[in-house]
Amino acid sequence: DGGITQSPKYLFRKEGQNVTLSCEQNLNHDAMYWYRQDPGQGLRLIYYSQIVNDFQKGDIAEGYSVSREKKESFPLTVTSAQKNPTAFYLCASSISGRTDTQYFGPGTRLTVL
Amino acid sequence: AQSVSQHNHHVILSEAASLELGCNYSYGGTVNLFWYVQYPGQHLQLLLKYFSGDPLVKGIKGFEAEFIKSKFSFNLRKPSVQWSDTAEYFCAVILIKAAGNKLTFGGGTRVLVKP
Lengths: 113, 115
What we know:
The complex is a heterodimer of chains A (113) and B (115). Chain A is mainly beta. In chain A, 0% of the residues lie in helices and 50% in strands. Chain A contains no helices and 11 strands. The termini of chain A are far apart. In chain B, the strands form 3 sheets. In chain B, strands 2, 5, 6, 10, 11 and 12 form a 6-stranded mixed sheet that branches. In chain B, strands 3-9-8-7 form a 4-stranded antiparallel sheet, with no helix packed on it. Chain B is mainly beta and 115 residues long. Classes of the chains: A mainly beta (113), B mainly beta (115).
């Protein structure tokens, strides 16, 4: 069963704690992405990676970090430096470059208390 | 700055009514265009896309969209909606540029179809 999985579906953390969101894909896609979805603002790009061991900042990278040690995995860490971390986080992947169609995972809803 | 605009934030209509959702972007070059849908409790799914060729593209579930380059628009249409079309719809655009391409999303339109 191919696709993108994100875990957990819901995540609660105390203010000041770092938290890591998981994203795994078995589509053999080279490129992976992290977006943040807030009501009325659509999706905004946090980080993207076009190949293993390489990643680039998106529009709202401050307070976030990523790694891409394996092709199928692209975890996102929300650090305590992120001022407003409560949001719905979506991971996506595409075959190769950034002009390709992106396919999305089910998302993780993070709530910081 | 590049932007994608979806003018309607909320749309309410009855079953069998026709639906048209507007999408405009601000970029004069080559674009790849997408419509995604997010049903309640489900993940974002691709409805249709346009890269080149016939500007009228057909997607899943009876949806279609028309690319009008002169108007920088990519409006989504469905002639007769069903209750199951209740969802949030996102237009997205990739601006094809020499130095990096980015998928930019509109703010979304929430559609409620009353049975």
